[in-house]
Q: What sequence folds into this?
């Protein structure tokens, strides 16, 4: 036990030892290879040589993988991004909103990722802004940061959006711009969840149907797209909203 603590295993060592148990999905395999080869000869190197002819000392610096999942290089970029976002926070409550897609759409999304990931961003953002513009909830434009996740906890394909939304927003008026607080209620929810789900579903499916009709999105073979769209309108789309938290807690890296 002492030896294990004094000599902790690295992510690379763990991945190398567990390659047989890692998912065979191509994307998972790609990320795994990048992490295993990070800062090794497999990624190439820069050679630094002392300019003194009598020294001739050489140092090899192996290239990093630059993958965001890598604790050796991508993690540093993540921390820098977090620090930059913390500077943008205002002293209000923030809300965590998650926009998911039914698993029945996985195949069509996999075949059209660039277009449908963008649609996922657009439909979720438009839904938030529509409810925020309603005076009974906020009547202003909030701050929103959206991040795309394409995998679930079990590393299965599961595209969804995580959005952090400010509990208030800016309202432009003739006399200038003013800050408007969002709706306050005993549950501390930002907007009604069921209503958001219906609006989000409609925005996504209407845009998807238009893309299919225009030939921009290619459906999987033997797929009746109209039947799929009809089924999706009958499916409940989940839009969970976390209870709001103050900006000082949101910025706490230990949460």
A:
């Amino acid at each position: 036990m002492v030896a294990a603590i004094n000599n902790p295993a690295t992510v690379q060592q763990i991945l190398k030892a567990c390659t047989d148990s890692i998912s065979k999905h191509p994307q998972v395999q790609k990320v795994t290879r990048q992490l295993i080869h990070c800062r090794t000869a497999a990624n190439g190197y820069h050679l630094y040589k002392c300019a003194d002819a009598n020294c001739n000392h050489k140092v090899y610096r192996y290239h990093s993988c630059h993958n965001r999942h890598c604790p050796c290089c991508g993690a540093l970029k993540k921390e820098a991004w977090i620090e930059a976002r913390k500077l943008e926070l205002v002293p209000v409550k923030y809300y965590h909103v998650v926009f998911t897609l039914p698993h029945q759409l996985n195949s069509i999304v996999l075949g059209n990722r660039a277009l449908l990931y963008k649609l996922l961003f657009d439909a979720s953002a438009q839904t938030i802004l529509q409810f925020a513009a309603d005076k009974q909830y906020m009547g202003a434009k909030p701050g929103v940061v959206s991040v795309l996740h394409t995998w679930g906890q079990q590393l299965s394909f599961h595209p969804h959006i995580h959005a952090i939304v400010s509990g208030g927003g800016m309202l432009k008026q003739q006399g200038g711009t003013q800050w408007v607080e969002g709706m306050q209620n005993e549950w501390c929810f930002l907007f009604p969840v069921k209503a958001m789900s219906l609006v989000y579903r409609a925005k996504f499916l209407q845009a998807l149907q238009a893309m299919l009709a225009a030939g921009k999105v290619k459906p999987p073979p033997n797929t009746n797209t109209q039947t799929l769209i009809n089924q999706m309108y009958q499916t409940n789309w989940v839009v969970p909203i976390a209870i709001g938290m103050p900006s000082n807690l949101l910025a706490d890296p230990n949460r």
The radius of gyration is 24 Å.
